[in-house]
Structures are given as structure tokens and as C-alpha cells.
Specification:
Length: about 950
């Protein structure tokens, strides 16, 4: 039998491996050949069986432990399955889903390289082991804080009681002395800790849309759909309809690097003969894998490109017809022509005449656009022909292109091009987002929670509206607003329909459509910053200002798993558990359970899968479950923690699974996923009603997942915007074919190529003297391509001629996972640039280069690429900074954070939207000490606890008088 025979059981293979070391090594279950002279000497100079055997292999072979389920939970939003093999309270191995044979109809829920390296996160040297206090910090504010030493001070270990006393005393002092404007939730508004602040006195929050950019704020007003705050989601065709397309357009997408299951579905369509097109500034890994035609578009110029495409569709249709689907345009859209204007229009301008130049004397021709977006004229014309009505095309976008300043009209322009070709509501056609758990297999959820008593009930009142109106700093001005002591607010909360000056009929708009008011200046006085479930110093931009804000505060508190950059600038660090850790054994001490937060109602899992998870190991060191800590803070402040957290984590965990329902095969009703008996209630100390489901609870936990088996022609398969869309009955149980896709949730009930609500709502904010149009119009954006020139008319380049954007990267999800040595070794921390730009600067692959502009300076390793447009730079997002502060006025980040290169510049029209991809920079070969690889630098936190209990924590690169 072949050693890698797919029919061979894993346990049998491991047994065979013990006798055949080479096979074990080939399977990746143990180390490679000897790497040191000592190894070679001990094995007689050869790699024999003993070299490749480790204790954990034997433990699995001998069955001394058990496989237990755990999913990934960290911000890549796919939540794939991992299994941990636990022996004596230690996870010694990981694997992914192998509970059933993999198939297209019933796929395994496989983890990626990040998730399968999670042991390196849980057992990492930079875990925060104990409550820590910055050595020079003292409570009370003022000079006692010694804020100038934040980021480079030493640390000392303290007890939990000391730590919580410091935190609560400082909160009480700041509330009494300054009020809630001085308390800053330096983390996600929906994180567990954010629920604490409204109970104890309020806070100032942040609200923006990092992931979704300009897609997030007008989606449903335009007639599209938002799943919660996830715009344009669940409306693309599912995996069974992808092969029915002639062409699939991937607009700014790179699922190969996101590493979720969409590549499985896309490759299946490719095998069926579907052609692929990729639109973006670089020819990425997904484009290469799909052999896609590359349509080059410079960063932030997509609206100009799409306007030219629409112009060409009009021109080609007038010349020969059969490009624009006039039946669809006339019946299901408003505002393209004078004859299709909506009833609430306040101007006589229509989109077609705008394209032709009737209002600004500038026809939006390919010749006009190519100067801006860099797309060859012939590619624009080709794209317009491809988008015509006689071609079955799916337009699938990610959100990268909308994370630019100047992208405010991108979502409307994207929808308009799709609508002109009639690519809505038909098999083989589509227009929607392709995003993590919804990527490549879209549509309504086949497994979903029906709510009720089992629902996720944490009182996540951390939304700004809960602590008073306008208590949210919007967009990229987070750090600059905190530094300035004031901010502009344009909405009561992130999704508020309660304003009295709503334009149009708000009853026709769903709750995901925001209502803006005139921007109001609000005070903020950051005296205490509490960081939870986030890492704003590595993700919020404007890092130079962030350092100043953190150093100017009275107190900075950080709830942490690892030594993040935000923790580095804190005064009190509180160690919290990973999602692997919990305690269900009273003999171990206080019972705790990992927070179910992050799972929500299952929205971050694939639509046809439910993943199991449970604590694998006891809490490590002195780490505590996060909500337990927040509950104790609330109690110490004199309030009732049940007001924030009314249900235990354990009860939420059980209710989460027992409340899950699956749509049955003939799509007529929802049925329980989990079978639950009275014996289960006794075993798990619960009192849930018995129910008959698809799989017993214990079997589900052993398998690690339940996956709906589907097939071609399954009535549950999906095409977005189709009239016979399935819906849930009012009783929450019955499924009826009575929730048609039309009318849409816009004021008109149609797709709004002209949207009066959009224009009136946005212009009311008053950020821009030039009003935005009701249709997708072009304007010169801030920090866009034009600003790379000192003289646009003469085409003279300026001091910062390169446009940099910040792609997500294989080795991390934002800042998560980036401290794992395996992924650091596999993927460097590069800056990607075109070969032409590198040669012009004398830069070769592997050179240390300095990336800089007026806001900051950082170092990275150069990686020239043939697939980058000249003038375009890619800086993978999320790295941990290593500061060289030898010149305090000109700090160089040797870690290479792109946040050093940005400031607090806001969107042209939407204050909540950030220009994460709008960086103008220059790059030069660095003549100083070259960078070492991340994995050679060592962990960011090296702990040595001496006899007195002092922690000598070393930050590489920091001036702390100790060797790094």
C-alpha cells in the first residue's frame, strides 16, 4: 500500500510512520533531517528513525490524548475548523477537518496555514503571562504618569487585585474629574469590553468601516442589500451557478491570499470553461491562478474607469445595439435617462447625459479616463463590450477598491455598469461582493440561528448611541481628533434612523441605511484609554500622532493575549485567554469558559456549515477570560455586571449550538441541527428542551462540524436578485416563496442609478463645498493619483510619486497571527513595487529600503514584481512596529508599519470612511543597517521573572538598557 494512500486512516499512517521515519517526515508530522552537528553526531551522521520521532507522535499513536474541536476566530472571518490533540492539558498537534470525505457537494472545512499554526500563538514567548504595570507609571495623572516613557519603559509584575484596583481607581477619578469625554474605548465598539462603559458611565467610541470602505454607507439606499453591516453581501450566485457564467470579473479581489474556500468554487468554474477577468493595480496570485485577463486600474481611480466603461456601453449600443438591456433598465432602475427619473428627483440631470458631458462639458470617454486610471483605451472598450447584455457575466467585487479617498461613488458606479447589462436576477449573471465566508458560494444562510431564548444576548450596548448622541469619532481622524481634543460627528450612531430630518420616506429604507445630520463639533479629552479586542496603534493609521496621544494620556490599559504595539504603549496590561482556554473543572479553581463573542449568530461561518468548538486547555499562566475581568471591574465600580453581560459564556455556548436551525432539503422548514436529550441536560448541567436534529451533540463535538450536503438542482441553491428568492415566515420557522427580490429596499423600490436620498443625506453633513451628485460623478480625490504630480498639466512628478496601498497578506489577518515563527519564515515582510520603479531607484530584490513621506518613515525588504503597474506600491498591512527613536523628531520604524505613512485625512464626503489605501510615498535604498528577518529578531516580549518578581521585559529596538 502506498504510504500516502488516501484511503489509509490517519492513525494507521502514524503507526506506519513510527517504523518508517522518512514517510513520517514526508507527511509533515515531525521535524526535518538533523540541522546541527550534535544531531548528526547522535545519529551517526544519518537521519534515522529516532531523529524524526518526537514525544507527541508517540502520544497520538498510542492514543494517550484526544482530538478536540476548535475553530479560527481571529478576524479573517472564515472560521475554518481546526482540531487539537490534547495530552495532559497540552495541545501537541493540530489537524483540520477530516471527519468526512471531501466533495464539492459536502466540502471539508479545512483550515489554512495561519489557523494550522495557532499553537504557536497560544504557546508563544510573547504571551502576556501576568498582570503587568509599567515601572515608571503612577496613578493620578500629570507628571506621575511619566508618559514620555511609554513604549520604552520597563515592566513589573503585579497581582490581579493590584491591577484591577489601579484600573477602577483611575476610572473613578477620571469620571469624577473630567466626565465621559475623557474615557476612551480604544477598541471595537462591538467588542465584549465595549458593553461595560455605558453601565459604568459612558465613553467616546470609534465608528468607521475599515473593511468595507465606501460600500458601507449607501448600499441599501441604492437598492442593493446589506447583511447587518456587511454591504452587498449574500447577493452573488452560489457555487452551483458559477459555472453557468461566460465570464467572472474579480474586481479588486485576492481570495488566494485570503485563504478561504472561494478558490475551490472558482477553480470549479474555471474547469467548466468560464473565463476570468481581474481588475486592479497588480496582477495578484488569484488572477494568476485563474489565468485572468488583467484590466489595469491605478489605485483610487476606479470610478473614472467605470464611468468610461458606462460611456462606451452607451456609445456601442447607439452604434450597433445589443449592449444595454433596455428592458431591465426601464423596469428595474431609475435615473439613467430622462424617462426613468425617480419621483423624488430634485434636479433634471440624468446619468446618461452626464456621461455624454451635458453638465460639465467633459464626456467620460476612454481617452478622458486613461489619463487618470492608466487603463488602455482598448481595454476600456473591451470591458464595455464584455459587460453587454448578451454575455453571461458575474461582477464580483471585494472592498479594497473602496478603501480609497475618492471612492464615495464607486459602489453606485459598479452597480450601474452591472445594471446597464441587465446582470441581475438571472442564472449565469451576478453583481455583488465576494467576501470571506460569503465568497464564491453566496446566498441566504442554510444554517442560521432562529433567535429566541437561545440567542446571543450579551448586551453589546457599546454602540455610541447608547452613551449619548454623537459619542463616536468617525473615520481616520481617530488619533488626530484625540490629539486635537475635538471631533466632527455626523450621525447619532453608526446605523441611526431616528433623526427627525430624514430625507424622503424612512419607512421604505431598512435600518442599515444611515441618516446623517450636519457635522457637529464635539469635545474629547483622552485621559484614560482602554484597549480591548483590538490593536488600534497597528491598524488605525496616523501612527506618529498615536504615539503622541498615548504618551499624553493619564492612563492606558490594555487587555492582551500577546505583546501588541498598543500593549507596548500601555501602563497596565491585563492578560486574557485565547479562545482555546477555559476551565470546566472546579478542582482547577474558578470556572470559566471562552467567550462566544466573535461567533455572533454564525454569520462568520460558511452558509452551509456549523463548526464545533470547546476549550482545549486550562487558562495559561494567570490569564483570565476577558468578560470575567470586565464583570469584576463593573462590580468594583459599584454597578451590576448583569446589565452588560446578562448570560454566562457557558449558557451562550450551549444555546448557540442548540438554537441553530438548518433549512431542510425541500426548502419548506427550519429544523434543528443538534439532537438534544434529557440525558444531555444532566450531563451538561443544562435545562434546554429536548429536540431531534441531524446529529447528536457529542458526535458533533467529536466530528468538529456539521455540513449540509447539497447537489446540483437543490432547491436551496441561489441566484441573487431572482424573484423567487426564499424567505423566512413571520413565525421564524416556515419557509415561503413569498419574499421576492423586488421591490428593492430603496425609496423607489428599484436600483437607483440616480439616488436623491444618497445626495441629500450625504450633502447634509457639509464636509465638502461641492455637493456630491445623486448619480456616480467623478471628482478629483484627496491624496489620489493627481497629487503624485507637482504640476498635473505639465505632468511633472512631485516629491512623493508612488501610490501605496495596503493589501491583506497570507501570514496575518490584520495584526492577528503575525507573531508566529512558521508563517514569518514562510512569508517575508516585503514592500512590492514594479520592476521599472525599482530599477529607476537602483533597488534589487532583498534590499532594505526606506519608505517615507511627510508623515513618517519606515523600512521594509524590497520585492520588485513584473505584475505591478509603474507608480504603484503594495505594503502588506498589519506589522508590529520596531521604533528607532535616536532622533525623536524623525522616528524610523524598523518593523515596517504602513501606519507611519498616513495621517488623519478624512474622506471627501463620508467621515466614517478611511483612505487606508491612499498613501503617497517615495522609496529609496537604505544606507543604514539592513533589516533582519522577523523570525531572526526574536519575540517582542522576552520574559525573565527574577526572585523579586520583577519582569525584565525587553522590546527589540527600544532604548531600555537591556540586550534585545
Amino acid at each position: 500500500m502506498a504510504l500516502l494512500d488516501k484511503g489509509m486512516k490517519r492513525r494507521d499512517f502514524l503507526k506506519a510512520s513510527a517504523a518508517a521515519a522518512a514517510a513520517t517526515a514526508a507527511a509533515g508530522l515531525a521535524g526535518c533531517a538533523p540541522s546541527t552537528a550534535t544531531d548528526m553526531a547522535e545519529t551517526g551522521g544519518s537521519a534515522n528513525a529516532t531523529t524524526h520521532q518526537v514525544a507527541s507522535d508517540a502520544a497520538i499513536i498510542e492514543g494517550r490524548g484526544e482530538w478536540m474541536p476548535i475553530h479560527c476566530h481571529q478576524n479573517c472571518n472564515q472560521m475554518c475548523l481546526n482540531m487539537g490533540y490534547v495530552v495532559d492539558g497540552v495541545v501537541v498537534r493540530q489537524k483540520t477537518d477530516d471527519s468526512h470525505a471531501d466533495s464539492f457537494d459536502c466540502p471539508q472545512q479545512r483550515g489554512c496555514l495561519r489557523g494550522r499554526s495557532l499553537r504557536q500563538q497560544v504557546y508563544n514567548a510573547d504571551r502576556i503571562k501576568y498582570p503587568m504595570k509599567r515601572k515608571s507609571w503612577q496613578p493620578g495623572g500629570g507628571e506621575a504618569a511619566h508618559g514620555e516613557l511609554r513604549g520604552k519603559d520597563e515592566w513589573e509584575r503585579i497581582s490581579w487585585d493590584e491591577a484591577l484596583t489601579y484600573v477602577t481607581d483611575e476610572l473613578k477619578r477620571v469620571y469624577a474629574q473630567y466626565g465621559q469625554d475623557a474615557v476612551i474605548c480604544n477598541g471595537w465598539r462591538w467588542a465584549p469590553g465595549s458593553a461595560m462603559f455605558p453601565v459604568i458611565g459612558g465613553a467616546v467610541y470609534n465608528t468607521e468601516c475599515e473593511s468595507f470602505g465606501c460600500w458601507a454607507f449607501q448600499t441599501e439606499a441604492l437598492g442593493m442589500y446589506s447583511h447587518g453591516d456587511h454591504p452587498d453581501l449574500m447577493m452573488a450566485p452560489d457555487k452551483y451557478d458559477l459555472p453557468n457564467a461566460d465570464t467572472i470579473v474579480l474586481y479588486g479581489c485576492n481570495p488566494a491570499w485570503s485563504q478561504h474556500s472561494s478558490m475551490y468554487w472558482l477553480k470549479n468554474a474555471q474547469k467548466a470553461g468560464v473565463n476570468f477577468v481581474f481588475v486592479g493595480p497588480d496582477y495578484n496570485a488569484t488572477a494568476a491562478a485563474m489565468d485572468a485577463r488583467w484590466i489595469r486600474v491605478r489605485p483610487g481611480t476606479d470610478t473614472a474607469f467605470l464611468l468610461a466603461v458606462a460611456y462606451e456601453m452607451v456609445r456601442l449600443d447607439e452604434e450597433r445595439g445589443d449592449i444595454i438591456d433596455w428592458d431591465f433598465v426601464n423596469e428595474r432602475t431609475v435615473g439613467f435617462t430622462p424617462e426613468t427619473m425617480p419621483a423624488d428627483a430634485t434636479t433634471d440631470e440624468n446619468f446618461r447625459d452626464y456621461l455624454l458631458g451635458a453638465y460639465d462639458n467633459t464626456p467620460k470617454t476612454p481617452e478622458w479616463a486613461t489619463e487618470i486610471c492608466g487603463t488602455p483605451v482598448e481595454d476600456i472598450t473591451w470591458y464595455a463590450e464584455m459587460a453587454g447584455k448578451n454575455n453571461a457575466v458575474m461582477f464580483l467585487h471585494s472592498y479594497a477598491a473602496s478603501r480609497y479617498l475618492g471612492a464615495e461613488n464607486l459602489s453606485q458606479a459598479f452597480m450601474t455598469v452591472s445594471a446597464l447589462g441587465g446582470h441581475f436576477g438571472k442564472s449565469g449573471h451576478g453583481s455583488a461582493a465576494i467576501y470571506t465566508w460569503d465568497a464564491g458560494d453566496s446566498g441566504y444562510r442554510l444554517i442560521q440561528h432562529v433567535g429566541g431564548d437561545y440567542g446571543y444576548v450579551d448586551n453589546l450596548v457599546g454602540s455610541p448611541a447608547a452613551t449619548g448622541p454623537n459619542r463616536n469619532i468617525e473615520g481616520n481622524s481617530w488619533w488626530s481628533s484625540l490629539a486635537d481634543g475635538k471631533y466632527l460627528s455626523s450621525s447619532e450612531g453608526p446605523y441611526d434612523l431616528g433623526s427627525s430630518d430624514v430625507v424622503g420616506d424612512p419607512t421604505k429604507l431598512r435600518a442599515n441605511t444611515p441618516v446623517y445630520h450636519e457635522a457637529r463639533e464635539m469635545p474629547v479629552n483622552p485621559r484614560i484609554l482602554v484597549q480591548t479586542n483590538s490593536n488600534f496603534m497597528q491598524t488605525r493609521g496616523n501612527l506618529a500622532t498615536a504615539i503622541k496621544v498615548m504618551r499624553a494620556a493619564d492612563t492606558c490599559v490594555s487587555f492582551e493575549i500577546k505583546f501588541s504595539l498598543t500593549a507596548q504603549f500601555a501602563d497596565i496590561i491585563l492578560p486574557v485567554c485565547t479562545h482555546w482556554e477555559g476551565n470546566d473543572d472546579e478542582s482547577w479553581g474558578e470556572l470559566s469558559w471562552p467567550s462566544p463573542f466573535g461567533d455572533g449568530n454564525g454569520q462568520k461561518q460558511r452558509k452551509d456549515a456549523l463548526l464545533a468548538w470547546k476549550p482545549l486547555v486550562k487558562p495559561m499562566y494567570e490569564a483570565r477570560e476577558e468578560k470575567r475581568v470586565f464583570r469584576e471591574i463593573i462590580e468594583r465600580m459599584g454597578y451590576n455586571p448583569d446589565d452588560a453581560y446578562p448570560k454566562s459564556n457557558y449558557d451562550q455556548w450551549l444555546g448557540y449550538f442548540l438554537g441553530m436551525r438548518v433549512l431542510n432539503e425541500d426548502a419548506t422548514k427550519w429544523e434543528p441541527v443538534i439532537t438534544w436529550t434529557e440525558a444531555d441536560n444532566e450531563k451538561y448541567h443544562a435545562s434546554y428542551p429536548a429536540q431531534e436534529g441531524k446529529v447528536a451533540f457529542d458526535q458533533f463535538m467529536a466530528d468538529g462540524s456539521y455540513v449540509v450536503e447539497r447537489s446540483e438542482g437543490d432547491p436551496r441553491n441561489y441566484v441573487g436578485y431572482r424573484d423567487d428568492k426564499l424567505g423566512i415566515g413571520e413565525d421564524g420557522e416556515s419557509v415561503v416563496v413569498a419574499d421576492p427580490a423586488w421591490p428593492r429596499p430603496s425609496v423607489s423600490g428599484k436600483l437607483e442609478i440616480y439616488c436623491q436620498y444618497k445626495a441629500d443625506n450625504v450633502n447634509r453633513i457639509g464636509l465638502n463645498d461641492t455637493p456630491i451628485k445623486p448619480y456616480a460623478n467623478y471628482f478629483v480625490p484627496r491624496r489620489g493619483y493627481q497629487e503624485t504630480f507637482a504640476n498635473w498639466e505639465a505632468k511633472e512628478k512631485g516629491a512623493y510619486p508612488l501610490q501605496a496601498y495596503t493589501p491583506h497578506y497570507m501570514r496575518r489577518a490584520h495584526t492577528c497571527y503575525d507573531n508566529m515563527t512558521w508563517t514569518q519564515e514562510a512569508f517575508r515582510n516585503p514592500v512590492f513595487m514594479s520592476v521599472e520603479d525599482a530599477e529607476a531607484r537602483g533597488i534589487k530584490a532583498g534590499d532594505t529600503v526606506r519608505c517615507f513621506n511627510d508623515f513618517g518613515s519606515m523600512l521594509r525588504i524590497a520585492q520588485p514584481m513584473q505584475g505591478y503597474m509603474p507608480g504603484v506600491v503594495g505594503i502588506p498591512h498589519g506589522v508590529h512596529s520596531v521604533f528607532d527613536e535616536s532622533d525623536p523628531e524623525n522616528i524610523i520604524d524598523r518593523g515596517g508599519s504602513e501606519q507611519m505613512l498616513s495621517d488623519g485625512l478624512q474622506s471627501n464626503y463620508f467621515p466614517q470612511v478611511d483612505g487606508y489605501n491612499s498613501l503617497l510615498i517615495e522609496i529609496e535604498k537604505y544606507d543604514g543597517e539592513p533589516l533582519v528577518e522577523d523570525f531572526e529578531r526574536g519575540p517582542f516580549l522576552a520574559a525573565g521573572i527574577d526572585a523579586e518578581g520583577t519582569a525584565a521585559y525587553v522590546v527589540p529596538g527600544a532604548d531600555n538598557g537591556q540586550e534585545a
